[in-house]
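Annotated sample (chain length 154).
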Amino acid sequence: MEAHPVTPIHRIGEAAQRSGVSAANIRYYEREGLLKPQARAGNDYRLYSEADIHRLRFIRQCRALDMSLDEVRTLLALDLNNKADCATASTALDAHLGHVRQRLAELWALERELLALRKRCDGSDDQCHIIEALHQRADEAVPVVAAPAGHRHV
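Output written by the structure step:
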């Protein structure tokens, strides 16, 4: 009889520790389809292989780059040995860079707005012109009906 290599199996706590992904996020990634639902031991514990732990690390790296779940899903589906998949990965990364650049522009505009607001008051007057400006903006603000949840990316 031929011996089969034993695949190390880890419970969720150990998989979390080895991957750097919390147990709650592991369960979330399973629900979102980024990680296949795991086999269960007789005691109903989820069991993870080394390949699962690698996949979790991959997901963690992508999320650290602020990629959306859809972007991560796209990259997970690609084969690193397939030249066509390299083009798909490049396209996905270019799209992500576009989102990052858009968010940077929004943050620069926010910084300018905050700096202008900050310049309104140095604390030497009888009243705070920062708070005054914020109250004025609140009075002028027109309620906006919430738009459908768009692709708020970064």
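Annotation: The two ends are 54 Å apart (CA to CA).
Annotation: The chain has a mean pLDDT of 87.
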